[in-house]
Amino acid sequence: MEYSECKIDQNIKIDQDNGISWITLNNPAKKNALSISMINELIENLKAIAEDERQRVVVLQGADGVFCSGADLEWMRAGIQQNMNENMEDARLFYKLYSTLYYFPKPIIAWVQKFAFGGATGLIACADYTLAEKDSLFGFPEVKLGLVPGTIAPFIVKKIGFNHSKALMLSGETFKAKKAKKTGLINEIIIPSESEDRIRKIAEQFMKNSPEAIASTKHLLNRIVDNGEFTDDLANLCCQTIASARISDEGQEGVTAFFEKRKPSWIKE
Question: What does pTM read for this prediction?
Fold first, then answer.
């Protein structure tokens, strides 16, 4: 029996069609940036989809042909005015989103258009299959701002390995889909005109398989890779690292320089 439904929250839109939940990051005015409200909506809806037996696959995409620019800039700006405890709360929310995606019991397909920077790379690192258009751009720009990719780091390292993670996170370079595929950050490069058909074929392939077997296999693979579980100690380390960076002198200088459209003090002319 066919089943379809559309739900629109403040920051995300969900279209459910014959077992596929299309989750659209829906704040195009901010390039679908991750805000507190968007993250909370994602977590809440992912939980509901996980418990809905009719839903077999999730497709994560962005509105208006753009995936996600990373963390919301206004939220980032607010961070330099917050104390350590407030920044820890922000970091824990990000970490909760990535953990929810990573341990999600059903297949997640990510569809990257235009770009995926910073926190957006955490979304695709936690997906099971990621497709990107040829000219899509990727990067970890945190160090350019005096910040640290703290909450995404463990998920990125598990996805692309220690060597690629160090090179890309320390350089802060922007790279294209070809390099993203070579590192393992994405699985496939697609032609825009064929994107939706290709995604549906992949989703249909997932849906040919036993739901219980898929959930068990995902759990098994997570356990095999570095014992799978992200411990509380690791979570605290990741969150404390980015929270500390936000209130540090260089973190505040970097973010302030970004908004003032000038070079930070550590770049000498």
Answer: 0.88
